Amino acid sequence: MAGWKEIVRKIAPTIGTALGGPMAGTATKFIADKLLGNPNANDSEIEEAILTASPDQLAKLKELDHQFKLDMKKLDIDLYELEYKDRDSARKLFEVNIWPQIVLSSIFVLGYFSVLFFLIKHPDSLSNSNPNLMGVFSTILGVLTAAIPQILNFWFGSSLGSKEKTKGLNVVAGNNKK
């Protein structure tokens, strides 16, 4: 089941964009005020309202997206530019010094495979000496396994694709940054 923020992103893309960036608090308060009539509603109240919303309420959310866009325009706030700047600072940091990412990624991956190798090579040594220790190692392995795709995405996935897209846009715009 999709989370409430994902539903908002699909129905109201402008508000959804704001929820994922530096204007998240503003977008949340806007939804709480306009959809629930309570600007002080918390995230769980908003989540419940979105997940149990009727088609009419979801249609109202779509209308509110247009109103939110107009309100942001009146304030001279470009949400997409804010989102771009938020990610651009991380890209610029990556261009300046890549070694921290290389070192941390290497340590993490080596640690992951060390734990995996130990558990495969000595499965009985942990469970015989202390059954709780096997549970701890299994939990650590699960957490490490869940983080591996993030590292792969950083090096080979969306971050790399975003960097290449930015280079292409700069070339098209005539900035010739490579």
Q: What would you note in describing this structure?
A:
This is TMhelix containing protein. The chain crosses the membrane at residues 98-120, 132-156. With 178 residues, the chain is mainly α. It has two domains: 4-80, no CATH class; 97-173. The chain contains ten helices and no strands. The chain has helices spanning 4-11, 13-19, 24-36, 43-51, 55-74, 79-96, 99-121, 123-129, 131-156, 158-173. α1 (4-11) packs across α4 (43-51) and α7 packs antiparallel against α9 (131-156). The radius of gyration is 23 Å and the shape is flat. The model has no long low-confidence stretch (mean pLDDT 77).
Short description:
It contains 10 helices and no strands.
Draw up the topology in text.
Layout: H1 4-11, H2 13-19, H3 24-36, H4 43-51, H5 55-74, H6 79-96, H7 99-121, H8 123-129, H9 131-156, H10 158-173
